Description:
Blueprint: H1 17-49, H2 51-61, H3 64-91, H4 98-125
Helix pairs in contact: 1-2, 1-3, 1-4, 3-4
Amino acid sequence: MANRPLSPHLQIWKWGPNMAVSILHRATGDGLALVGLAVMVWWLGALASGPEAYATFLAIATSPVGWVFMVGLSWAFFSHLCSGLRHFVLDIGAGYELKTNNAWSIVSPLVGIALTVGFWAIVLLR
């Protein structure tokens, strides 16, 4: 067998914010697809099943564990949205300069956090 070059792997690449936000984008997408879908199906099923089932859903969703899930899902949504927009800009061919790419990689999750805080401030202060 001939000596063939090995593919670069994580030990070879120097970690940067662009790699972290790319992994975060995948993780938040998976979380939304798995946990978010399960919560949404449960919510719709409780809504269709009547007042007693919906009251059970509300009791669990507004418990401390429920709040963690709901805030976590909204954070995953906003972070995924922001990093998805970042990826969209990269797909059209812009933002590949190293400083620009690193800056947007840092700003993207921070905007996701800010949008989450703003969303819950609106929800809770109404």
